[in-house]
Amino acid sequence: MLKKRKKHSRPRPTDENVSEVDTKCSSGEAIDENTNGAEDSPETFDFECPPEKSIEQEKTVEEEEEVEQGVAATEWQMDTKASFCELCQKSFRNPSTLKVHMRCHTGEKPYSCKVCGKCFSFPGNLSKHEHIHQVGKNFTCQFCKKTFLLHKTLKKHERIHTGEKMYDCKFCSQQFLYLTSRNNHEQKHLEEQSEKGFVCVQCSKVCKTAAALVMHQKKHYFRGLKHRDGKDLQPSAAEICTWGGAASSICNDPKMTGERRSVSMPESFPPSFDDCEAPLLSYSSGVTEVIPQNVCTPSPVENVSTIGETDSSHFMTPPPLPPVALHSSVLMEVPKGWKHWKARHYNLEENLNSDHSSLKESTKTFTELKTMTSFDNPFVP
DNA sequence: CTATGCACCGATTGATAA
DNA sequence: TTATCAATCGGTGCATAG
Ligand SMILES: [Zn+2]
Ligand SMILES: [Zn+2]
Ligand SMILES: [Zn+2]
Ligand SMILES: [Zn+2]
Predict the structure, then answer these.
(1) Ligand 3 centroid to A45 CA: how many Å?
(2) Bridge partner list, A140
(3) Bridge partner residues of A119 (DSSP)
(4) Which of A103, A165, A287, A305 places its Cα 20 to 30 Å from the Cα of A322?
(5) What are the subcellular locations of this protein (predicted)?
(6) CA distances (Å), A290 to each of A234, A235, A352, A356, in order?
(7) pTM of the prediction?
(8) Strand C positions closer than 7 A to protein CB
C-alpha cells in the first residue's frame, strides 16, 4: 500500500539529551531552538500547501478504502491486532499508542516542567509548554513580521492575512475566521429559528407547524419535478454506495464515537441542522443542478424530539438509495436515520482535512449546496 | 456587548529509533 | 514490534478594541 509521502520526516536528533520518559525535562530539550524562523522546520513554513491541507491527517489508502467500504472499518476495530480502548471505544494500531492514549483517561501526567512544575500527559505538550519559558518569540509572521511564541499561534494569526476562514456556518454559507464568531453566528440562527417556527429553506416561508411546512414544501417539490425535465440529477451508483457505506460504517464506528474533541461529536444528538444537511451530502457530488432545497427543513431544536416520535413523516428524508427515489422520496420520513446522518456528517468534517479526494469532492459540493440553499437566509449578507 | 486576536492546552498521527 | 517524538490538529480562556 503506497502511503502518501510525508514531508516532515526530518531525521531525528539522535543523541540529544531528550530524556524520554524522564519526568524532568532536560534543559537541552529537543524543542526547537532553531527558533527564529526555524529554517527547515516544517513547523514554520509550509505555505506552499493550502493551509488546511494537513499532511498529518492524511490517511493511508488502506484506511480510505475502509471508510469507503463501510464495513471494513468496523472489522478493523475488532481486529485483535489493534489495541482497543474500552473506555472510549477507540482503536489504535500501535499498542504503545494505546498506552499513551490511556493517560487521557487516567489523568497520568508523567512529564513535568522543571521551570514551573506543570505536568503533562504527553511529552510533546511538555516541549511546547517549555517553549513559553524561553525568552523571545520564535515564530515570525511572513506577512507582517509579528512574532509569536508558538507555531500554532502563528498559523492562526496568518489566517488573517491569507483570508482563510476555516469555520463554516452550518446553516448558511458564511465563513468565519474565529470559532467563537462562528458559534455566535450559528446561535443566532438557532434563536431565530426557534422564534419563528419552521422555516422553509427555499423561500424562507415560516410555518407554525412542521406539518404545515411539509405541505408547503410539497409545492417546491412538485415544482422541482417539473423543472427537472429529464436532466440526470441523480447520483451515480458509486456515489450512493460510497455514501451509504460510509454512513453505515461510521455509525458503527467506535472511532467516531470517541472522545476526540476535535470532532465534537456530541454525546447525544438532538437532531439539528446537521441532520438536515446530511441529505445534501448524500447526493451532492457531481450534481450540478439538484433540488437541494428538498432537504428537511430545520426545525426548532427543542421541538425535534417530539416530531421525531409523533410526526416523523413530516421530515423529508435523505434518500440514499434508488436513484429513482431520489427526488420522490424527499418528503418521506427518516427519523430512525438521524443518528446515521449525524455520524456521517461528522465523519465528513473529519475527512475534510484528509486527502481523500472523493470525500473532499463531496464535501466541497456540499459547501456549494449550502450556498445554494441559503440564498434567502437573512443571515447571508 | 460582540468580534477579534493571542496564549496555551489536550490529543492524535506517522515516521523512525530502539 | 514497540516506544518515542516531531508535527499538527482542534479547542478553550482571556484580553482588548470597537
Ligand atoms: Zn480511550
Ligand atoms: Zn513550565
Ligand atoms: Zn501577520
Ligand atoms: Zn449562517
Answers:
(1) 13
(2) A147
(3) A112
(4) A305
(5) Nucleus
(6) 8, 10, 22, 24
(7) 0.45
(8) 1-14
Torsion of CA A58, A60, A63, A67, to 10 degrees: 50
Work out if A177's Cβ lies within 7 angstroms of strand B.
yes
> For residue A380, how many other CB atoms are within 10 A of its CB?
13
User: A198 vs A214, A294, A298, A330, CA distance in Å?
Assistant: 10, 14, 7, 17
Cell 524561553 identifies what position? A134
The amino acid present at A190, given as its one-letter code, is: L
- Report the run of H or E that residue A91 belongs to, with start and end: strand A90-92
Return phi, psi of residue A376, to 5°.
-110, 15
Instruction: Write out the three cell numbers for A333.
Output: 420520513
CA distance A30 to A40: 15
Tens-binned pLDDT, residue by residue, of chain A (381 aa): 322 223 233 333 222 232 333 333 333 223 333 333 322 233 333 332 333 333 333 333 333 333 333 333 344 444 444 578 888 888 888 889 998 999 999 999 999 888 888 999 999 999 889 888 877 777 888 888 888 888 889 999 999 998 888 888 888 888 888 888 888 888 777 777 666 666 655 555 666 666 777 777 777 666 655 544 433 333 333 332 233 333 333 333 332 322 222 222 232 333 333 333 333 222 222 222 222 332 333 333 333 332 222 233 323 333 332 222 222 222 222 222 222 222 223 233 333 333 333 332 232 223 222 322 333 333 333
Instruction: From residues 253-292 of A, list those within 7 angstroms of strand B by Cβ.
Output: 258-262
DSSP letter assigned to residue A85: E
DSSP helix/strand/coil, A77: helix
Question: Strand pairing of A111-112 and A119-120?
Answer: antiparallel
Q: How far is the CA of A132 from the centre of ligand 2 (A)?
A: 7
Closest CA to A329 of A313, A342, A349, A353: A313
Sign (positive/negative) of CA torsion A158, A162, A166, A169? positive
